[in-house]
Structures are given as C-alpha cells and as structure tokens.
Amino acid sequence: MNLANRSQTIEVQPLGGFNQALSYGVSEKHAGLIQVGSLVSVPLGPRRTLGIVSSLTSSENLPVGKLKYVSAVLREEPVLSSDLLALARWMSDYYASSVEAVLEGMIPASVRDGTNSKTKRMLELSNREPLEASMSALDRSPKQKLLLEFLIKEGKPVAWLETLKKLKMGDNVAKGLIQKGFAKESRDSVKRVAYADDLTDSQEDVAVEVKLTDEQEKAAKEIKQDLSTGTFKTRMLLGITGSGKTEVYFEAMEEALAQGGSVLFLVPEVALAPQTVSRLRHRFRKHGEDVVVWHSHLSAGERLDAWSSITRGEARIVVGARSAVFAPVPRLRLIVVDEEHEPAYKQEDNPRYHGRDVAVYRAMLNQAVCLLGSATPSLETLRNVTLGKYEKSTLSKRIDGRELPLIHLVDMRRESQREKVPPILSQPLIEALRQRYTDREQSILFLNRRGFNTTMLCPDCGHVEQCKDCSIAMTFHRTDGYLRCHLCSYRKPAPRACPSCQSFDIRKKGHGTQRIEDIVSSLLPRKAVVMRIDADMMTKKNLFREVLNDFRRGKIDVLVGTQMIAKGLDFPNVTLVGVVDADLPLRMEDFRASERAFQLLVQVGGRAGRGDRAGEVYIQSYAPHASSIQYSRKADLEGFSEEEMELREEFGYPPFRHLIRHLFRGRSSEKVEFYAQQWRNLLDANPIANVDIKGPAPAPLEKIKGYYRYHLLYLTQSVTPFLSEFQKRRKEFPLDRDIHDILDVDCHQLS
Ligand code: ADP
Ligand code: ZN
Ligand code: ZN
Fold first, then answer.
1. Is the CB–ligand 1 distance for residue 247 below 6 Å?
2. pLDDT above 90 covers what percent of the chain?
3. Same CATH fold, 406-451+512-647 and 196-401?
4. Which ligand 1 atom sits nearest the alpha carbon of residue 276?
5. Domain 406-451+512-647 has what CATH class?
6. What spacing in Å lies between the alpha carbon of 197 and ligand 1's midpoint?
7. Residues lining ligand 3 (ion), CB within 5 A?
8. Among 98-107, 368-377, 455-464, which is the least confidently predicted range?
9. Fewest CB atoms within 10 Å of the CB: 84, 121, 246, 561?
C-alpha cells in the first residue's frame, strides 16, 4: 500500500535548530486536523522536534520511500495566523535572523512546549429538552434535583469542585445527574486573571467624557477615512505633549472595532503607561471589550491565557510593549504605536527587530492602518512623511490652550566658576525647588543616568574605577558600599581612597538618583518628602506603583528619577521640572545623540504645567549652545529636524541610508581584530555594490564580560539585496570556533 499517494505533502518549519521549511507527508488520520499555522511534531534526523505548518503544498518531489510523516498534531487551533508566518519570513530575511528565532519570539514558550492550557472541570446542563417534564425522574433523588435546579438557575457552566462543595454534595450526585442525561461535564480554561493586569487601579481622572477639540476631530476623521478604505496606510500623528493624542487613538480604535476588527496598541514600556492602560480599559469596557495587557512580567501561565483569549478572538484589544506586535489577533485593522520615537522599540537581542517597523509591515500584510504617534517623531518617520510614504495629522495646540512651560537654560560652566567644587544643583534650580515647596506645588528632577548608580571618579586625579572584564566604569552602590559592573555584574568593595592618588574625596563624586535625593532632602525643610524612582524599582511592580500613586495624590513633594519618568506620565500639580545633566546623551559616541537629547528634553518639558498652572523647566548644561538644547527650549521640531537632517544627509547616515552593524567578538583581542580585518579584506577583493563600509574598529565598549569586540558598519540604501550578497560571501568565510559575529540591521545602539 502506498500511503504517500493518498496523502498530501506539506511544508513544516521546524522549531529546533533548522532554518528551512522541510517537506513532510500527512497520514490520513491527521489530514483533517492540519492547517497553516498548526503546531506539529515531526521527525528530524534521529529525533523529533516541534514545527509549524508553513504551507499546505510542497514543491518538493521526494521519492515515496524518502518522505517522512508528521507524527502528531499538537493543538486543535493553529498557533500562528498566516499573516504572522509571512511576517516571520520577512523578519528573518530583513533582520538576518533565523526563522526559528523569530517564531520563538512569537509563540509563548508554554505553547511551544506543547503543554496545554490548564483546564478546569466544569458542570453544565445537557441539551436535554424539555427539562421540567422529565424532572419527575429525579423525585427519588432530592440531592440530584437540588443540583439540577441550581444549574438551571445559574444558566451557565459552573465550577465542578466549588459548586459541589458549596451545596455540600459528593461527586456521586453530579455523576448521577450526568448518567441520567441531565447534565454533562465540560472543561474551561483557567483564566489567571493577573493578565487583566493590576498595574492600574481605579483612577480618579479617567472617567471624564471629553468633547474633542477641532484639531482632534480633524485628525480622528482623517484616520477613520484611512480605515474605511480597507487598504494599508501608515499615518504619523504629530501632537505636542498634552495635545490629547490618546483621545484620537481611541476614536480610531472605536472605528476599527466597529468594523469588526482588532487593534494592537503598542507602548514603549507597559509599566510606564498605567494611565494609558486604565484609560483604555475604562473607555472600552463599556463596549464590553476585553483589553489584554501583554508585557514581559507575565508568568508563563498568564501569557498562555492572554494568548489563548486573543487567538479565540475573545479579546480584540491588546496593549503591550514591542512584542505585542506579534499578538495573534484575528482580523487586524489598526496598530497604534505610541511614542514611536522611543529607542525601547528596538530589541537588542536576536531577533534585533524594531517594533515600529515591524508594526508597519504587519499592517501592510493585513491591509490595515498603522498609526505612529509622537510629540517628537523619529527622523526615520519624518523622512517617510516627506517621501510621501506616510500620511500626517497634526495636533499643534495643548488641550485648553495651556502654554508650553517656560524653559530656563542654566550654564553650568558659569555655575562651576562660582564655586570650588562643580555643583550638582545650580543656584537657580535650588531657589526654584524651594519656592515650589513653599507654594505647595510639586517638582520632578530628571537625570539621564540609569539607576541610582554612580561612577567612581576621583575629583583630584581623574582616575575612574573600571571593571576588569569590561571596558566601562563600575558603578557605586551606596546601600552596600560595593562597586558593580552593570554589564557583567562583577562586584568588589569600593576603595576608601583613590587607588591612583590616595585622595579620600573619591567617594563623594557622582550624582545618581540617590545622591540627588540626599542633596534635595538636605536643601528643603525636614517635612518635605523627597522620593526617587529608578530602574531597580521596575522589578518591584507594587513599589513603583505606590510611589507614582503617592506622587499623584500629592504625598510627595519632589520626585527624582531617570529618563523613565520622562515618558507619558501626567501629573497635573507638577510645575517644576529640573534636568540635572542635559549633556550626558551628547557625550555618547552615537550619531543619534543629538536627536535623543532633543526628544528627551522636549518630553521632559512636557511633564511640567499640565494642570491649570503654567510650568517651568530648568535645564542644566555644560554645552548650552548645542543645537539640540537650543531647539528643545521652544520644542521646535521643525527647526531641529531640518538642521539634523542636513547633517545626516551629508554623511549618508540614517534615515538616508540603513545602518547595519557587523560585530565580531571573542576572548582574544588580536584574534578578533584579525578576523574582522580579514573579512574587510575579503569584501574589498570581492566588493558588494551600493554600500559604504566603515571599519573594522574597536566597538565603543571594547570589552564586555571578558569578550573583545570589533565592528564594521555598512551603510546602504536597501537592506535585503545587500544582505543576500553579504550572506554569499559570509558562507565562504569560516570563523574560528571561539569567534562569533552578529549582524544588527537598523542598529540603534552603537555600544
Ligand atoms: P498627549 O498624549 O498628546 O501628551 P494626552 O492624550 O495624555 O496628551 O492628553 C492630555 C490631557 O488632556 C489628558 O489628561 C486628557 O484626558 C486631556 N484631554 C484630551 N483631550 C481632551 C479634550 N478634548 N477635552 C478635555 N480634555 C482632554
Ligand atoms: Zn564587567
Ligand atoms: Zn585620584
């Protein structure tokens, strides 16, 4: 008998170390179960592996004896929609990543493992009719009758265990009812309600119904128009801080839902968008819509539940960080990318995708609309608007005509001349802080530095304590007096005196959030409440929430934090924002440094004066003439982007060309450099058209965790043609086993 003749041949993408779809036969018993996107188990060499059905036909013509068969179909419903499969293929090509790695990011581990959703034993009425007439059959089983009446009253499946316990009955009562055909057993997935997340509790300020301003009305109309065409469109929503972009998103979402579609709402970091999430819930709960929050802190079980209710089409709104762009919603109509300029949308691990760009591509695959919102759009997006690829809607006024805050630049060079030691807080900023406290208004102090870490820099000789394995400064943690490397977490006790000049002043330097917190506390009266918020708190969800809530309720006078507090938080009583070290991003070796500084300063400025009172911003800078700082004073996006675009064009940097970074790493510095140089020689001997090559050069972080790093940079107009030429050559270039290379397409962080 020849089974192969009677069965189909399909293609399966294995999830275990193989980057190409393979052909498999489908036996009769599986034939009806298999769809594109089904999770299957297939033989691969001597073992078995999981795979995703990627096509129901196969071009390959294998001789019958060679054909292997799908061993099992693991879930009834497909685990991926066909648009996600297409997206995975594109991502694999564009970001030079394996399909396997991309798929792993799309499908929750608990689904990939083949473990099923935890189910709960339920009891419900059978379809037997008419019930009342036959109920007399239960006259001699009063308990069964009682249970039946309970089921009729409930009118829906009830939890087996809990119900029997409540009615003080044994299992046999339920089984008796089932036997007599009145009831049946069923299963329900256990919803771990945590994913209906608790980042947000009831908030006072969400309930207000607003009447759209004319500008909002116009923007909403433009987007609804896009949606009504049923074709792919990308639109930038340029709205200054406080102009009410969120309401416009909501209008667009309502339209998409009304069309029977689903919506993805992407934010840079969910923990930082509690207000957005609660506003979403509030707005759409009244329509009976379930909002799924998708974020990295979900447990495996929570993720699985969220994922299941999305695939079943029960939840049509998904809000989350970049990976939510893969949420398997059916009939996707709209993707909102809020704060589209945020670097957090770029994933720094394989696959190194950009959430915004993937969102645009996925919208294209679905003939859907992608809406990119920001007060300070990325130059990439601005360029796409100029080129006519994206449409544009604008909100140019703050709600209620509130003024943008008054911005003071403090020249720190002059401030330091006045004092012996360069001050951390300048006199004008200190005065302003004191005044706010007296007036019972709130202030935010903003630092660029991550965490409450501080560099150990000797003020006398300039010595910096560095990690022995990474070429970066270690950071000093006051709480335990240790120095830590934030790349490899190597730690050692901090020296009491400078190892180089023996000065005892070495411990006093640095200004992390904790140091600022101390300084501010000492400047204000005892009763003043000063708190800080930093990266460490993000892991303690409740603490983070409590501090934010206390601040909102006015229980905290001054909040000190890193860039995370620059994003999307809305505190009406804040009238003063101080930027302690505006220069830091300008010092990074990164062509995007200016852009980032501009964005940060404008966003930070947007935090002040959101209530009825006007706000003030103090920017402390050692380079007050820098254009990013000058333009940010007036939130002059046009002025800034015009100047910055000119520079980028001159050097052919993004957004005029794509930047691809090729990193070599290994334990031996000489070897890494040698291979990087050999590779460059190969490219010179066998050039690729339309690409500018820079390097090899040591990466800005030359050594991380004991690995040396060299990189080459490629600047090219179009990515995929370059990559295909690149891969051809790369295959002919064997690397030693202890040398690795990594490609980062549209690289953001040149670390
Ligand atoms: P953005 O995201 O553009 O910075 P938001 O969407 O957060 O601005 O809106 C800022 C504030 O204005 C919010 O408190 C919001 O509730 C309020 N708001 C938005 N639109 C209106 C409106 N049409 N009328 C009154 N208040 C509004
Ligand atoms: Zn280190
Ligand atoms: Zn010293």
1. yes
2. 35
3. yes
4. 7
5. alpha beta
6. 23
7. 458, 460-461, 463, 498, 500-501, 503
8. 455-464
9. 121
Distance between the two ends of the chain, CA-based, in angstroms?
62
At residue 418, does pLDDT exceed 80?
no
Average per-residue pLDDT for the chain: 83
Nearest CA to ligand 1 atom 13: 244
Residue 227: which pLDDT band, with cuts at 50, 70 and 90? Answer: very high
pTM for this structure?
0.79
**Given 3.40.630.10, 3.40.50.1100, 3.40.50.300, 3.55.50.30, which CATH number is that of 196-401?**
3.40.50.300
Tokens of 457: 């820099």
Does residue 376 line the site of ligand 1, with CB under 6 A? no
Q: Which two tokens stand for residue 662?
A: 């090729």
What's the CA-to-centroid distance between 495 and ligand 3, angstroms?
Answer: 11
Residue 617: which H helix or E strand, with range? strand 616-621
Q: Is 588 left (phi over 0), alpha (psi -120 to 50) or beta?
A: beta
Bond preceding residue 130 cis, omega within 30 of 0:
yes
Identify the band that residue 209 occupies on the pLDDT scale cut at 50, 70 and 90: confident
Among 203, 206, 209, 210, name the best residue to mutate to test ligand 1's pocket (greatest count of ligand atoms within 8 A of Cβ). 210
Burial of 396 (0-12, 13-18, 19+ CB in 10 A): exposed
Cα torsion for 121, 122, 128, 132, to the nearest 10°?
Answer: 140
pLDDT of 573 strictly over 50: yes
pLDDT tens readout for residues 311-333: 888 889 999 999 999 998 989 99
Beta strands in 331-437 (DSSP E): 332-338, 369-374, 391-395, 406-411
Range 9-112 has CATH code 2.60.120.560: no
Here the tokens at position 272 are: 């930082």
User: In the chain, where are the structural domains located?
Assistant: 9-112, 118-190, 196-401, 406-451+512-647, 453-510, 658-745
Please state the atom number of ligand 1 nearest to the C-alpha of residue 216: 23
What CATH number does domain 658-745 carry, 3.30.450.40, 3.20.20.70, 3.30.70.600, 3.40.50.1820? 3.30.70.600
Separation CA 452–CA 736 (nearest Å): 40
Mean pLDDT calculated for residue range 254-283? 88
Ligand 3 centroid distance, CA of 508 (Å): 12
With the most atoms of ligand 1 within 8 angstroms of its CB, the residue from 371, 399, 400, 567 to mutate is 399
- pLDDT for 8 equals 79
**CA 461–ligand 2 middle distance (angstroms):** 23
